[in-house]
Amino acid sequence: MTKNEFLTKLADELKKNNIPDYDDIVAEYEQHFAFKMADGYSEEEIAAKLGNPAVLASQFESINQDKKSAGKKATTIIGLSFIDIFAGAFFVLLIAWEIIMAAFSLCSLAVAVCLFGKISPLSLIPPMPYGPALVFGISLTALALLTAVGCIYFAAFIRQLMRSFGRFHHNTIAAASGNAILPSIAIYPRLPAKTNRRIRTIALISLVLFASSFVLGMIISMILSGSLEFWHIWGWFGYKIGN
Amino acid sequence: MNIQYKKGVLELCVLSLLKKHDCYGYEISEYLSKHIDIADGTVYPILRKLKSDGLLTTYMQEESGGPPRKYYSLTKLGRETYEKEREEYLNFAKRVEALLEDDE
Questions:
Q1: CA nearest to A134, candidates A54, A76, A195, A217
Q2: What is d(CA A185, CA A159) in angstroms, rounded to the nearest whole number?
Q3: What is the spatial order of strands in the sheet that B69-74 belongs to?
Q4: Do B52 and A50 touch (CB under 8 A)?
Q5: Are the C-beta atoms of residues B11 and B46 closer than 8 Å to each other?
Q6: Does B40 sit within 8 Å of A51, measured CB to CB?
Q7: What residues of chain B, 26 to 85, have a C-beta less than 8 Å from chain A?
Q8: Which CATH number goes with the domain that contains B56?
Q9: What is the SS3 assignment for B22?
């Protein structure tokens, strides 16, 4: 087989298999001939070493399926946009929860500051002796810390979930249109082991501190007021019992 | 050896060569047929598949005294994929070797 015979046969086979840019492929084989001939091989030798053009053309077949996947891509995008609506609502919910947690943390801290500083804006802080106020203050500070750590971790989680969803989104379209797929992303945040350990330690310490000082505050208050329901003794709800 | 069987391994060989430096098609074909017994033409479908998978990109470069050559270069994805599949293949080959040698 001569060079021209080989290339014509290859081009015909590629066209038959509906390969879109067959001339690009043929050009590459033509260059192969050019290099080999420069090395002193005959056209027949080169063609024989290249292999059967029909077999070679069939090896290109499985690659280009853009035409077939055009409809599939449209369906995928429609399906994805429905998923996006639900996922979007879900993310709004997660972010709302994040905001609530952050607000809760700040409020706890504010109340703790009021207790420590003996201030009661608009008389909102229930009256109590300074001793239990200090213990409750510590308890609320710990609670603020605990929820703050929760907030930080949750924010990382939301971020990672969004990235993971974005990657899923990208890959689904890529797969439908026959493009390259990227590795998927885990949904849990991958914090460095050191940060992970630190977060866990802070969370654990603040949880223990919160619970123990809360119980301690209750007990001190009961002893000081001489009643299990100390809030009535100190008139937390606008009236006093026992006086 | 069975061609389908070889093809996956050939992809790995192409990636390994391109990891060292960018090459044009003929260079890759020569390199492979020197080491592995395949038809010279087989490498071009492989290059094309790797390109459509996003593992390779191409660019044209002028050479002194000749038409511009089409160079193949590894993408970031190609590099990552190569590292991963290299590990997998070497592991796999080691196990198969152990199994087959055990046969004697």
A1: A217
A2: 12
A3: B23-24, B69-74, B56-61
A4: no
A5: yes
A6: yes
A7: 26, 29, 33, 39-42, 44-45, 48-49, 52-55, 67, 69-70, 77, 80
A8: 1.10.10.10
A9: coil
- Tell me the pLDDT tens digit for each residue of B28-66: 998 888 888 888 888 898 998 888 888 998 888 877 777
Beta-carbon separation of A31 and B77 below 8 A: no
Cα separation, A148 vs A165, whole angstroms: 25
Length of chain B in residues, anyone? 104
Residues in B closer than 8 angstroms to A51, CB to CB, are 39-42
The answer to whether residues A157 and A189 touch, using CB atoms and an 8 Å cutoff, is yes
Residue B104 is predicted with a pLDDT of 63
Count up the domains in chain B and report the number. 1
Beta bridge partners of B60: B70
Strands B23-24 and B56-61: unpaired
> Torsions phi, psi of A103, nearest 5?
-65, -40
pTM of the model: 0.50
Place of tokens 């000082």: A213
> Can you tell me the distance from the alpha carbon of A171 to that of A44, in angstroms, rounded to the nearest whole number?
45
Write down the residue that tokens 């949880």 correspond to: A207
Q: State which residues form the domain around B79.
A: 3-102
Residue A155 has pLDDT above 70, yes or no: yes
Tens digit of pLDDT for each residue in A42-62? 999 999 989 889 888 888 865
Chain A contact probe: residue of B4, B7, B26, B33 with most A CBs at under 10 A: B26
Chain B: closest CA distance from residue A191 (Å)? 22
Which residue in chain B is spatially nearest to A55 when comparing CA positions? B42
Residue ranges of the domains in chain A?
A: 3-61, 73-233
